[in-house]
Specification:
D-Maltodextrin-Binding Protein, domain 2; five-stranded mixed sheet; SsuA/THI5; six-stranded mixed sheet; about 450 residues; alpha+beta
């Protein structure tokens, strides 16, 4: 590629740079005038980025934020309204926040850093106040290719067209993964800067050789038989997460409203943890995503762990992300410590302590059931699934622990044991170190299990 080309910028439709019409009146976006009897709080979210649902899709459907605001309104004599604005990526949310049109938003770790940088540059500083979902190994991002493609691993991407959303967490995974594979992420591939849905269409049409995207796009495409995973982001073993950001001015002027939002987010987190199947069904209904895909990420053993806490390891990972964005020319630098504000979450009521994610287990979801069954091994799951009316079966990758659909996984027979992997490369890495083990088809794995 031409080394003198201009740096790619995050996706930011021009229309979104223009001021939004104040459909909600003078109080919209900015939280209302001081002393106003009606205050509209504008929340930007990504409905199909499903590990933000406790601050977006699920929270909205449950009505918890509106409930918390109604209770607060009775005390302070203010009528609160919520305006929910749905976007495909974090970039337009940042554009509207820095224009004073969105008060609270949720987005991934890389977009959060851009949010911080843009806020500082445009004199509309923002603060990171909570996490939604995370994966300590990085399993929320995946690189996929079309079924039957000759591309089977990252090394096969040299000179190929790869679609991603520049400035996103998925792009960060792609850059780091390529570097580890000895491929220059700027010159070694032809990067297409596209929104997730556009990239998915490009992959299907053959105008992109691979797609690097964040939850839930890789799982959705795999579930639909439109993609095969070639790189599991968990191979990086670097935490990735999504979080909640707020305009600093709004947080100071409407601290009670922010407290209400975080209290509502905790309630939504409790709901998702207590009723994961119901939550997945709800999110599926709201977004049009298959419930089986939502559950892959947000289920009891899902790839994402939901916890609002600003865990030290997540903040440390955020600091490691800064050089990647700086090298891409997307930020000059970010003071992460100044961006992170732990005080609002500490103030918020209902503050349970959630345990860290443990090792994922194989899980079976039968049709007509409102709960799932877990198993100690993939082999046990396959035995139980034989002859059953299966809605979805999930197995963890034997190396990374990333959950994947059993019928889309790469299977390995190792003596009497059966192992599952997200990608062919991982399966080959395993068999290369285990003499006698061999890669087998899913049908053969089912036969061996029974």
């Amino acid at each position: 590629m031409n080394s003198t080309r201009l740096p790619l910028l995050p996706l930011l439709p021009v229309a979104l740079l223009l001021p939004l019409a104040t459909a909600c009146g003078a109080a919209s976006g900015a939280g209302g005038e001081a002393g106003s009897k009606t205050v509209t709080v504008t929340v930007g979210y990504q409905s199909k980025t499903i590990n933000t649902v406790t601050a977006g899709t699920l929270l909205r459907s449950l009505g918890y934020f509106e409930e918390e605001l109604a209770a607060r309104g009775k005390k302070d004599g203010i009528t609160y309204k919520v305006a929910w604005q749905d976007y495909a990526t974090g970039a337009p949310i940042t554009a509207q926040m820095t224009a004073g049109k969105i008060d609270i938003g949720s987005m991934g770790d890389f977009p959060l850093l851009i949010n911080a940088a843009r806020g500082k540059e445009l004199k509309q500083p923002t603060r990171l106040v909570a996490v939604t979902g995370y994966n300590l190994r990085g399993g929320l991002n995946t690189v996929v290719t079309a079924p039957g493609s000759p591309v089977r691993s990252l090394t096969d991407l040299r000179g190929k067209k790869v679609s991603t959303s520049v400035g996103s967490a998925a792009d960060g995974t792609l850059v780091r993964a390529l570097q580890r594979a000895g491929i220059d992420p700027d010159k070694g591939i032809r990067k297409l800067n596209q929104q997730p849905s556009v990239g998915a269409s490009a992959l299907t049409a053959g105008s992109a050789d691979a797609l690097s995207q964040f939850v839930a796009w890789p799982g959705k495409l795999a579930f639909e038989g439109r993609a095969t995973a070639i790189y599991d982001g968990a191979e990086l073993n670097l935490p990735t997460f999504h979080g909640v950001t707020v305009r600093k001015k709004f947080a100071e002027e409407r601290a009670g409203v922010l407290d209400a939002f975080l209290a509502a987010q905790r309630r939504a987190t409790d709901h998702l943890r207590a009723r994961p199947v119901a939550a997945a069904e709800s999110v599926a209904e709201e977004t049009g995503l298959p419930a089986e895909v939502v559950y892959l990420y947000n289920g009891a053993n899902g790839i994402a762990t939901f916890d609002p806490e600003l865990r030290p390891e997540l903040i440390a990972a955020l600091k490691e992300d800064v050089p990647v964005l700086k090298a891409a020319g997307l930020v000059d630098g970010v003071d992460v410590d100044a961006f992170v504000d732990t005080a609002p979450l500490k103030r918020a009521k209902q503050a349970p302590s959630y345990p860290k994610a443990g090792a994922a287990r194989a899980e079976l979801w039968l049709k007509g059931q409102s709960s799932t069954r877990t198993f100690d091994s993939p082999k046990d799951l396959l035995k139980a699934a034989e002859g059953a009316d299966v809605r979805a079966a999930y197995v963890p990758d034997a190396l990374t622990g990333t959950l994947w659909f059993a019928d889309k996984a790469v299977w390995v027979a190792d003596g009497s044991e059966l192992r599952a992997f997200v990608t062919p490369a991982s399966a080959e890495k395993y068999t290369g170190g285990r003499p006698g083990s061999r890669i087998i088809s899913y049908a053969d794995a089912v036969g061996l299990a029974s």
